[in-house]
UniProtKB/TrEMBL annotation:
CBM2 domain location: 413-519
UniProt cross-references to PANTHER family, sorted A to Z: FERULOYL ESTERASE, UNNAMED PRODUCT-RELATED
Signal peptide positions (record): 1-31
Pfam families for the chain: CBM_2, Esterase_PHB, fn3
Protein name: PHB depolymerase family esterase
Tagged with keyword Hydrolase: yes
InterPro entries found in the cross-reference section: AB_hydrolase_fold, CBD2, CBM2/CBM3_carb-bd_dom_sf, CBM2_carb-bd_dom_sf, Esterase_phb, FN3_dom, FN3_sf, Ig-like_fold
Keyword Magnesium: no
Keywords assigned by UniProt, alphabetized: Carbohydrate metabolism, Glycosidase, Hydrolase, Polysaccharide degradation, Signal
Domain Fibronectin type-III: 321-415
Length: 519
C-alpha cells in the first residue's frame, strides 16, 4: 500500500507540474525551433533547443526559458509566449530539456550538492554551456542574459541567479521556490518535500546567507528578480512567494516593506522593492485565485519588460559616448563617480551605463565592475593607498554599446587602523569538515577602522572550501582574510562585524584552526 501511495503521489505531482507543457516532439512545434547537440560540457545530460528570430540586432539578448517537471523545452516553447516576443523584440530563446527524474521525470536539479556548487556539475553547468554556445554561435550579448521558467523551471531560475550571479542580468520565476529551499536529495521530489510541504519558514538573513554562500567572496552586481505566484497554488504553496521575497530583498539589502504597490491587471497585485537610486531590484506578483497554472496569457510580456527587452530590434545605432567620469568622495575603500549622460540616436533610449575599472596608474586591463541606471556610481571594496582608473560606456535598450569614455584616475586614502580582536565560533562540525560562523571582528581601539585583516592557521591536512563576507587568500596553511566594502569600517567603542568559512579535514581529525590575529 505504501508503494502504491508513493506512485500515485508522484503521478499526481507530475501531472500538476506539467500543466503548462506539451509532449516532446509535438507536431505543432515551430520549424524555427532547432535542436543543438554537442553544445559543450553537459553533466546534466540535458537537451538543448534554441529559437533564433530572423530579425535581431548584431548582439542579441539571450533568454533561458525552462519548463516544469514532466515537461520539455519544445513543449514550453509551444505553450508559452516567449518565442512570439522574441520575434517582436529580437532576442534569442534557449529552451533546455531536463532529464533528472526527482521521482517522476524531467525536473531541473535544484537539490543535489553538485548543483549548488559553482562549477560543481549537474544541470547548472549544462545550462552555462548552452549560454556559451549561443554567445559563440550567434554573437549573443553576454551582458544581457536572462533566466525564466515555470514550476521546476522557476525554481531553477532562482537557483541559477544565486550560483551564477555574474552571468545573469535578471530573472523571472513563475511558481518557484527560494534558492536552497531543497536541503538535499532526501528533500525531493517537490510533492513530498519539506520545502513545498507548506511549513517552510526561514528568516530573511538565513535566506540571504544561502545565496551569498553559493558564490563566496562575490561582490559584483546581483541580477534583478521578478517573482510570480498564484494565491490558490497548493502544489508549490503560495506562502513560498513570501520566502522568496525575503531571500532576494535581503540579498539586495532592501527592506521587507515594498517601496510601491499597484494592480497592473484585474486580480494581479504587484509589489516593488527599489534601491535608494529608484531601481526596482525585486518585483513580486500575487495572482488572485490562480493555482499551479503560471505563466498565463500576457505574463511573459511583463517578464520581458522587466528584463528591459521591450524595444524595437531594428535599432543598431549605439548611444553617444558618455562624459569622462569625475571622482568624488574618495576614501580608503571606495569612491563615487559621476559623468555627463549619453544620448541615444536610434530610438531606444539609454538603458544604463557600464563602469569599467583597471588597477594601477598604468597597465592592467579594464574590466566591468558594475552598472548604473543613472549617471553616478559608487565603487566599494577598494584597497587603501592604491591607484585605480575608471571608464564608462552607455548601453541602449536594444543592446547597442557606446565607445568608452575618457579615463579618470584616483588614489584611495590611507587606512586608519585601530586595535581589533578576532573571535571564532564553531557553528557546526562533522567527521571530515566544519563551519566557523560567525568569526567576529571587534574594534577595541579608540579610532575608526577602515579596513581589517585577520590571519589564522589551518591544521595540517585541512583545506578551505568556502568563505563569505570577506576576501580570502591562502599560503600553505596560513589563511589571510581581508574586509570587503560593506564591513571594513568599524567605529571605535567595540563595534563589530563578522565573516565565516568552511573547511574540510581528514576523517576523524578533530583539530580546529588556531592563532587568530587581527590587524
Amino acid at each position: 500500500m505504501r508503494r502504491l501511495t508513493t506512485v500515485l503521489a508522484g503521478a499526481c505531482a507530475a501531472a500538476l507540474f506539467a500543466v503548462m507543457t506539451v509532449a516532446l516532439g509535438s507536431p505543432a512545434v515551430a520549424a524555427a525551433l532547432v535542436e543543438v547537440t554537442g553544445f559543450g560540457d553537459n553533466p546534466g545530460n540535458m537537451r538543448m533547443h534554441v529559437y533564433v528570430p530572423d530579425s535581431r540586432p548584431a548582439s542579441p539578448a539571450i533568454v533561458v526559458a525552462m519548463h516544469g517537471c514532466g515537461g520539455s523545452g519544445p513543449g514550453f516553447h509551444q505553450s508559452s509566449e516567449f518565442a512570439s516576443l522574441a520575434d517582436r523584440y529580437g532576442f534569442i530563446v534557449i529552451y533546455p530539456t531536463a532529464t533528472q527524474s526527482a521521482g517522476f521525470g524531467n525536473c531541473f536539479d535544484t537539490w543535489s550538492d553538485a548543483a549548488k556548487q559553482r562549477g560543481g556539475g549537474s544541470d547548472p553547468v549544462s545550462l552555462v554551456s548552452m549560454i556559451n554556445y549561443v554567445e559563440r554561435t550567434y554573437r549573443g550579448d553576454p551582458n544581457r542574459v536572462y533566466a525564466t521558467g515555470s514550476s521546476s523551471g522557476g525554481m531553477m531560475t532562482q537557483h541559477m541567479l544565486a550560483v551564477y550571479p555574474d552571468l545573469f542580468k535578471a530573472g523571472a520565476s513563475f511558481m518557484g521556490v527560494p534558492f536552497n529551499c531543497f536541503a538535499g536529495a532526501s528533500d525531493y521530489p517537490p510533492g513530498s518535500s519539506r520545502c513545498t510541504g507548506g511549513s517552510m519558514d526561514r528568516t530573511p538573513q538565513q535566506w540571504g546567507d544561502a545565496v551569498r554562500q553559493a558564490y563566496p567572496g562575490y561582490s559584483g552586481p546581483r541580477p534583478r528578480m521578478q517573482l510570480w505566484h498564484g494565491t490558490s497554488d497548493t502544489l508549490v504553496p503560495y506562502s513560498l512567494l513570501r520566502e522568496s521575497i525575503e531571500q532576494w530583498t535581503n540579498v539586495f539589502g532592501l527592506s521587507q516593506t515594498p517601496t510601491g504597490t499597484d494592480t497592473p491587471q484585474a486580480g494581479w497585485s504587484r509589489s516593488r522593492y527599489a534601491d535608494p537610486s529608484g531601481t526596482v531590484q525585486v518585483e513580486a506578483y500575487s495572482i488572485q485565485g490562480a493555482g499551479h497554472t503560471l505563466p498565463q496569457s500576457g505574463m511573459a510580456r511583463y517578464a520581458v519588460e522587466f528584463f528591459g527587452l521591450t524595444t524595437s530590434q531594428t535599432d543598431t545605432t549605439p548611444p553617444t559616448t558618455p562624459g569622462t567620469p569625475v571622482a568624488s568622495g574618495v576614501t580608503a575603500t571606495g569612491a563615487t563617480l559621476t559623468w555627463t549622460a549619453s544620448t541615444d540616436q536610434g530610438g531606444s533610449g539609454v538603458a544604463g551605463y557600464e563602469i569599467l575599472r583597471a588597477p594601477g596608474a598604468t597597465g592592467g586591463t579594464f574590466a566591468q565592475v558594475g552598472t548604473s541606471a543613472t549617471t553616478s556610481f559608487t565603487d566599494t571594496g577598494l584597497s587603501a593607498s592604491t591607484a585605480y582608473r575608471y571608464q564608462v560606456r552607455a548601453r541602449d535598450a536594444a543592446g547597442n554599446v557606446s565607445a568608452v569614455s575618457g579615463t579618470v584616475q584616483i588614489t584611495t586614502q590611507g587606512g586608519t587602523t585601530g586595535a581589533c580582536h578576532a573571535t571564532p565560533t564553531v557553528q557546526s562540525q562533522w567527521g571530515n569538515g566544519y563551519v566557523i560562523q560567525p568569526l567576529t571582528i571587534t574594534n577595541t581601539g579608540t579610532s575608526t577602522i577602515t579596513g581589517w585583516t585577520v590571519t589564522f592557521t589551518l591544521p595540517a591536512g585541512h583545506t578551505l572550501t568556502g568563505s563569505w563576507n570577506a576576501t580570502v587568500t591562502t599560503s600553505g596553511q596560513t589563511v589571510t582574510v581581508r574586509s570587503v566594502g560593506h564591513n571594513g569600517t568599524l567605529a571605535p567603542g567595540v563595534a563589530t562585524t563578522s565573516f565565516g568559512f568552511q573547511a574540510s579535514r581528514p576523517n576523524g581529525d578533530t583539530a580546529l584552526p588556531s592563532a587568530y590575529t587581527c590587524a
